[in-house]
Amino acid sequence: MRFFSHGSVHIAYKWWVTLAVALGMIMSLMDSTIVNIAIPQMQHTFGANLHDLQWVVTIYMLTQAAVIPAAPYLNALFGGKRVYIWTLIAFLLGSLLCGFAWNLPSLIFFRLLQGIGGGILLPMVMILQYQVFPLEERGRATSVLGLAMIIAPTLGPVIGGFLVSAFGWRSAFFINLPLGVIAVTLAQKTLQQTPPQTRIRFDIFGFLTAAAGSSLIVYSVSTIVSGATSIANVLLLLVAFLLIGAFVAIELHKTRSEQQPLLDLRRFRDRAFTCSTLTQIIVFFIWFGGLFLIPIYLQTLHQETALQAGLIQGSLSLAPLAILPFGGKLTDRFGPRPIVLLGLCIMACAFALLLTLTLHTPIWMLVCLLFLLGCPGGLTNQIPVAAFSQIKKEEEQELANASALLSVLRAAAAPLGVAVFASVVQNRSQYYLESLARQGLTGIELQSQSLLFAMHESFLSASILALAAFAVMTFVPRGKRSQDLQPAVPLEENLLLDRKRA
Predict the structure, then answer these.
(1) Which range marks the domain in which residue 242 is found?
(2) What are residue 12's phi and psi, to 5 degrees?
(3) Is residue 491 part of a domain?
(4) Smallest Cα–Cα separation from 455: which of 434, 488, 428, 480?
(5) Percent of the chain scored above 70 by pLDDT?
(6) What 3 state SS string does 253-269 have?
(7) Is 0.90 surpassed by the pTM of this model?
(8) Contact between 409 and 280 (Cβ < 8 Å)
(9) pLDDT, tens digit, 9 for 90 and up, residues 227-276
């Protein structure tokens, strides 16, 4: 077992790797929510409408979904350490350029550059961490990364509200720089370079069809669900499905002809991976959709300021902080399946309880409800452990392929969740506006109640989808407990082996 020394403190190498990659994940995930707070200031600075400014958020997510499939190839060609550091630097460069953007087109272009680094960064985080942790310890390892995956998006509005109020919208991008310098320095000093594979070819046609298809699906579904049901958008969706079909055909052909595919789709033969991935898609869909609606409720209906709303929403982060360590230990002991199922049950109940929200719900009750909503994050973040449960630590390329597949689908699910939930609220609020007007309501109360009832329907949909994810997760095979994976070796012999490894 390798150890790194810092003064008198000795920390296992695997935990230094976890710390290094967690910093990168925090930056990438926080950026997905922190920018939303700065949208009103950007609108004033550039004199643009809200529809055009949405591209600042959308282009980042679209680029992430497009470039993720390239991660396994880059990992194999250059080694994990180089790719991780290069993508970190690309993300930081994009953040710096965004902060200096002089108009809206330049900002959108720089967000595209930032998304290239951020997109490859996410699968590389899982690849690097899973390469250094044995199967029986992946639950605890995933719990540590879960702190970044769950807390970063919810802390984004809190930090963003303070920075934008005090220093302007450009600070939403500049905040990445100091954290990024620390992450690059730590990664350079701690990560060990894995040997690259020289005899590997890039699947250019697979990459182009996957990138174009996934991007068009996110764009076309988002526009159609939001109400833009034009023939052009429907045709774009059809083209997107054709491109994805072409990608599947290309990858299967390469696999049958013993060539290196961009993504090895044979991993979907693994029932644990397939069902876990589908569960993760549903969870990301409803989670990011919920994160989009909650600030709107707090600011528009509950009349809180941006900073106050961010602080209230911060209660979402408290629950994962408390639960994640226990979730990882329980996963290592009992397997990920029962832990994730418990989290999905809590998620369904929490979204159902959001139906009790009113225009005058007390602050203490809001904090309690949001705390409960955050609890599942400490449990459902064990889904990747279930997805990768049939992959051994030594199968580095299998880990890379599975990580990329999972990351691509999660990257597409998040913006779709936002678009669908926003569309439901927009369409149903108009219905309630007309219905309540006939009952005699007028003015601000009419608009507020209509929006609130529409949000109730979205929360109900999220609760039902969480139950659907529960049903899917039941098809995941039961995982082995860590004690079943370890050989029966006396304690003294274990200690002796540890000393020899050290």
Answers:
(1) 203-261
(2) -60, 145
(3) no
(4) 428
(5) 77
(6) HHHHCCCCCCCCHHHHH
(7) no
(8) yes
(9) 666 787 788 889 988 998 898 888 888 878 777 777 777 777 778 888 88
Task: Identify residue 425 by its one-letter amino acid code.
Answer: V
Is 175 in the same domain as 42?
yes
Q: Where are the alpha helices (DSSP H) in 133-203?
A: 138-146, 152-167, 171-174, 176-190
Q: Are the C-beta atoms of 456 and 357 separated by less than 8 Å?
A: yes
Tens-digit pLDDT profile for residues 208-223: 887 788 778 777 776 7
Q: Which residues of 190-213 are buried (b: 16+ CB within 10 A; e: fewer)?
A: bbeebeeeeeeeebeebbbbbbbb
Find out whether 418 and 288 touch, Cβ atoms under 8 Å: yes
For residues 15 and 85, membership in a common domain is answered with yes
Cβ proximity of 140 and 20 under 8 Å: no
Query: Hunting for tokens 């029986």 — which residue is that?
Result: 136
What pLDDT sits at residue 349?
Answer: 94
Q: Which residue has the tokens 């004199």?
A: 47
Tally of domains in the chain: 2
Question: Are 103 and 224 part of one and the same domain?
Answer: no
Tokens 């999972």, residue located: 406
Max Cα separation, the chain?
A: 80
496 CB neighbour count, 10 Å cutoff: 12
Q: Are residues 65 and 174 in the same domain?
A: yes
Which tens digit of pLDDT belongs to each residue from 50-68?
556 767 777 787 787 778 7
In terms of domains, do 123 and 228 share one?
no
**Would 115 be classed as within a structural domain?**
yes
- Judged against a pLDDT cut of 50, whether residue 289 lies above it is answered with yes
